[in-house]
Every structure is written in C-alpha cells, then in structure tokens.
C-alpha cells in the first residue's frame, strides 16, 4: 500500500474517531470534562510523557509546539491504544478492556526555519455507571423507604490541532524556536440520573446533554545549546516551556426531567416535569504551564525531566465540579531513550530506539474530601517503556509502547483504585511528500 493510500485510509477512519469512542469506564469521569487524556504520541508516552525539551527531526511532538520547526521531512503518524483496567474497592473488583485510535497527525517543514502540523486526538472521556442507596424518612419516621440513585454518563471531547513553529535563531551553537498550537475542542457529554424507591413503581429521570466546543491556544519555546566536550561535539542541553492561558468553552445544553412507570423508560409513556433545549452556557477552561530540560547526545541517548502544572476547574455545577473537591494538578516526569548503535548494519536491534520513563501526578480531584472530609489529592503513578523500530530501506518507523499505572492509594481500601495496563502502537511515515523534486 502506498503512503498516499495509507493517508487516505487513516483520514477515513477519523470518522469513527470523531463519533466518540468508549475510552473509559472510570467513576472519576463523573467530574468535569471526564478523564483527561495525555494528548501526545506513542514515543512520548513511552518516555513517561516526556517531551517539553525533546528535539527530534523525525517525530511530531505535540507537547511543545516550538518543536515543529525541527522537522526535516514530512511526518505522518497514526496510532492505536488498547487498555486493560481493573477497578477495586474493598472486596469488589471489576475488569474492563477498551481499544481505539489514540492519535492521527501530519507535520512538515515549509522552509528551513518554519514547520507546521495538524493533529486529531481524544482529549477527555466520560464513562461511568454508579449506584448509591439511601433511606428516606417521612414525618420524622426513620427507615420508611429505601431510595436508589443511578448515575450514568458517556461521551467526551476530541482535540483538533493546528500548529505553527518558527526558528527565531538557527545557529550551530544554539537554536531558539517559538511555536503555537491552535486547539479546537469539540464533543458531547451525556449525563443521566435515575431515582426510584422500593415502595413505588414511579421512577424519576433527569437527563442532561451538552455539546461543547471552543478554541484555546498553547504557546511554546524551545532552546537548544551545543555543549563542547573532549569526547564528543554532539551533546546538547535543551530547555522547553509551554503556556496555556485560561479561556472559555461554549456549551449547547438540553435538560429533560420526567417521571415514568419503571423500570424500563419509554418516552411515549413518560410525564414531562421540565424540558428546555438550546441552553447557551460558557464553561471556564483553566490555565496550565509546563517546563522541561533534557541532555541529548544526538548519536545515542537522551534523558530529561518535565514538570506540568494545571489549574483546577472553577466551581461549575453544569459539569459536576465544585471548588470543595477540585485542586490544582501537578505532574513530574523523568524519561529518555538510548540507541546502542544506529549505524549497525549487522545487528538490527542495535539500531532500535529504546525508551523509558516514570511519572507521578496528583489532582485534579481531592478524593479525601469526597470520601471522608479530609484533604488528599487523587494520585496517578505510572511507568512506561517502548521501542522505535526502524523499517529497513525506509525512513519510516514503527513505535510500540507500554504503560502500567495505578490511580488511587493501596492504603485506602474505601477508595476506588484503578490499575491499568496500556499498549500503544503507531506508525511514523517520514517521506518527501511536499518537497520539490529537482531534475539534474
């Protein structure tokens, strides 16, 4: 299959991507926009999510928009993700499996100093089905009836990206690049609450649907300086910064509240209590910033650290968030890669790029405030590894990554803990699709 046919097929598959995948079964997706994804590529995820200061000319790096100007050829990437998830609370356990597209993107240089990119990725996912029970008292008589609350949610947001990067300085000893990502977020989130009692056949249903869309901007800077040593002239110290100012999203909302004879809901036999459509809302989108440093030997290895900070969502009951349970999120990443010998023509695995990384994050949720009125941020700890497998007689690369993580705390048996294992696979096609051919 030619590269153009592959590109055409990938674009067609984005229709399935935009319709919304089941990307989570997490009860934590009840809050806000749902579970937020690490919107990047397989090679970054294999390094724990490292990428703020990574300078490479064969890969798209969405984590810092200033990196696009370093592309030497057209890079097209298409990635898939599969996750095995185990949720546990006390003696209760549940296992789930999800799979789908993780990203699709295209980037290329339009001059020696300017590069642009396009991308489509999942941004957040909502998927939960929760049930709680309570005892209703009537006229101060306890234990009269037991009521059941069933909370369901589905949907999520996707991110359509256009990036631009420009090398302000392109010298032998140092390079400075600036970049911008124009991110258009769009998608729908559906939430439903059903309440019923053992003593009555009447059910109450509250349905809240939102179509959310909006634009936000990311600004990036990447600085690379050559370090001369006695052993090598290939060492570079890189630094990267990314800033995302606060903005707002638009929401087109519809609400429907009905009663019906349960347990099966039929719209034709339901009594409408309240109904309103085309409700226009503005939802605040918080600021974020990231900073990273790396040391890079262009022939063999890279090691780096990243720090990401995200402000908590502002109190907004329309997306199930409250300032009482939301906290700023912080993430620390250590990762890198190494290549035994990229020019080895005898042993293939010496030319493979081996990646590794670890990450630790806490927030957005204050799980302690939800569970037992004590402050304790929700933790996410993960380890990652992967490989970049060069394809012989081609500039293209097959990437595979593995990530294992734990959300929650082993010492808190009353909390819901998630153990997840994810497998990522992507193809990076590097070609001269947009370069002018010269006839000699």
Per CATH, the architecture is Beta Barrel
What's the helix count?
Answer: 3
CATH topology: Porin
Mean pLDDT: 85
Shape: elongated
First-residue to last-residue Cα separation:
29 Å
Provide the spatial order of strands within the biggest beta sheet. Answer: 2-3-4-5-6-7-8-11-12-13-14-15-16-17
Uncertain stretches of 5 or more adjacent residues: 4-12, 14-20
The structural class is mainly beta
User: How many β-strand runs?
Assistant: 17
Question: Can you summarize the main beta sheet?
Answer: 14 strands, antiparallel, barrel
Please estimate the helix content.
under 10%
CATH class: Mainly Beta
Q: Indicate how many domains the architecture comprises.
A: 1
In what range is the share of β-strand residues? over 45%
Helices, strands, pairings?
Elements (H helix, E strand, L loop, with lengths): L2 H16 L16 E2 L5 H4 L28 E16 L2 E18 L4 E25 L2 E30 L3 E24 L4 E26 L7 E10 L2 E15 L9 E15 L2 E10 L3 E10 L15 E13 L14 E14 H5 L5 E14 L6 E11 L9 E15 L9
Antiparallel strand pairs: 1-4, 2-3, 2-17, 3-4, 4-5, 5-6, 6-7, 7-8, 7-9, 8-11, 9-10, 11-12, 12-13, 13-14, 14-15, 15-16, 16-17
Describe this structure in words.
The protein is mainly beta. The chain has a single domain (3-431), classed as Porin (Beta Barrel). It has three helices and 17 strands. The chain has helices at residues 3-18, 42-45, 367-371; strands at 35-36, 74-89, 92-109, 114-138, 141-170, 174-197, 202-227, 235-244, 247-261, 271-285, 288-297, 301-310, 326-338, 353-366, 377-390, 397-407, 417-431. Strands 2-3-4-5-6-7-8-11-12-13-14-15-16-17 form a 14-stranded antiparallel β-barrel. Strand 11 and strand 12 form a beta hairpin. The protein starts with a helix and ends in a 9-residue tail after the last strand. Mean pLDDT is 85; it is low at 4-12 and 14-20.
